[in-house]
Amino acid sequence: MALFGLAALLVGFSKTAIGGLSSISIAIFASLMPARESTAAILLMLIVGDVMAVWNYRHDCDWSLLRRLIPSVLPGLALGALFLGAIDDNVLRRVIGALLIVMALLQLLLRWRSPTRGGLAYGRTAAIGAGLAAGFTTMVANAAGPVMTLYLVAQGVDKRRFLGTGALFFFGVNLCKLPFSAGLGLFHAATLTRALALAPLVLVGGWAGVRVARKISQVRFDQAVLGASVLAALALVLR
């Protein structure tokens, strides 16, 4: 139960401060529960964190960035749902790890090619690709955080715009995932009970994240969101 509690705290903290840390929570849940069931359990906690993040950063969303992503997210969700319904838990665990590793490597490549903020910018085609990847990875593994990190860091957005845009994006995407997950039969009474019990810890983590985000510098913030995604990938693959 302690590990579940830690995962819930990290979910809240990641939603209001360092986004990549939510992938560590995904790794914890995938190691303690059947992989398929874990995606539904953590989805409910992610939505709790989303609500807190949207409220705290409601004035900081960059709608122009979202408009480029949204058209391709739904097809990505549909592809992810088809994939999720066709594979077993062992394969899904490997897929979750592989997705996070690929995203982490892409982020390291971004940092190597563009050490200064905003050195790379995504055009329309790349934004469509990012939307598809975000929809697919979030449906399969709740792991679109690294995709969004890559996209937003490449755009050179400041930390509050990063957090505000990500908060609204993930709130909308996670709500869209609910009917997909329900249709796949992933919600059970035990899953709902566990999510309800852990929700207060998500809020505590979110409260702490808001305060950290206020104090951390922009450079440290960029480094932290990239580093957290790398750690998340390693936590799942090496568990």
Automatic annotation (TrEMBL):
Pfam family, one: TauE
Membrane-traversing stretches: 39-57, 69-87, 93-110, 161-180, 192-209, 221-238
Keywords: Cell membrane, Membrane, Transmembrane, Transmembrane helix, Transport
Primary residence: membrane
InterPro entries registered for this protein in UniProt: TM_pro_TauE-like, TSUP
Localization per Swiss-Prot or TrEMBL: Cell membrane
Protein's membrane topology: Multi-pass membrane protein
Family membership: Belongs to the 4-toluene sulfonate uptake permease (TSUP) (TC 2.A.102) family.
Cross-referenced PANTHER family: MEMBRANE TRANSPORTER PROTEIN YDHB-RELATED, TRANSMEMBRANE PROTEIN YFCA
Protein name as annotated: Probable membrane transporter protein
